[in-house]
Automatic annotation (TrEMBL):
Superkingdom of source: Eukaryota
Basic and acidic residues bias spans: 1-27, 41-54, 69-336
Source organism per UniProt: Monosiga brevicollis
Residues in the signal sequence: none
Region entry Disordered, spans: 1-336
Compositionally biased tracts (Polar residues): 57-67
Low complexity biased stretches: 28-37
The name this protein goes by in its record: Uncharacterized protein
Amino acid sequence: IFGAPKKADVSDDGELRARQEADRKANAEAAELARAAAARRKQEEAERLAKEAKSGPASTNESNAANTEADRQAKEEADRQAKEEADRQAKEEADRQAKEEADRQAKEEADRQAKEEADRRAKEEADRQAKEEADRQAKAEADRQAKAEADRQAKEEADRQAKEEADRQAKEEADRQAKEEADRRAKEEADRQAKEEADRQAKAEADRQAKAEADRQAKEEADRQAKAEADRQAKEEADRQAKEEADRRAKEEADRRAKEEADRQAKEEADRRAKEEADRRAKEEADRQAKEEADRRAKEEADRQAKEEADRQAKEEADRQAKEEADRRAKEEADR
């Protein structure tokens, strides 16, 4: 159940990487478009300022120099504003895409956890229904066997009672006929043989005692056999119930061990996936921080170089203006 990931999971990872790569390309294209738009606005602003500068009066060399300086400063201001606008738009676009990516990942994680919870509940419900069905079938089988055993014992008891009743009636009939025959013979012989009657009566008494003894022994034998049969049936019933109890306990123990093994494997699989997810997030966080640090350092270096270049150009411009002013004054002094 908890083996290697299915092919569908691998394809989902591939689709996720493909979407991430597409998002990265889209981000790069959006940033490039933002930079192009900023450059285009900067160029338009520079052209506008140049056109305004050309349309003004240019009567003297000083006004021409002022126009040139104004054009240069306007161009620098336009470049700065265009760069700031491009950086702001790129940052807003990156923030928006990062938020969308975080929302998407959160939704995917919630969907995955919801699916796992639904699968777990479905498995628990299936296990519960299977156990209830097994218990129901076991109870039905036990009831059927108990009914069959009760029917068999009832039939045996009825057969035994019927046989005993038939034997009793046959014995009574035989006794009755024997008594009638004896009475008849005794009546026929009473007048003729008194001595033989005495002998017959003695013999009849002996026969009666012998019959009583035989009946007593037969009853004791029947009681012994009935007790032995009852003991045998009780032992068989006890053995059957003991076997059913042992089978039930063995099944419950096997089910418990199987459930414990399944729970253990599920926990190990969940721990492994959680560790992989934590490692992946840690790596993404480290990559993100490294990229932010590299971008920050690159921006600081670019700002430093831009500042040095601006300072150098400002110094050169100041030196040039000072030299022009000195030359102008020297020329005026010479002319004067």
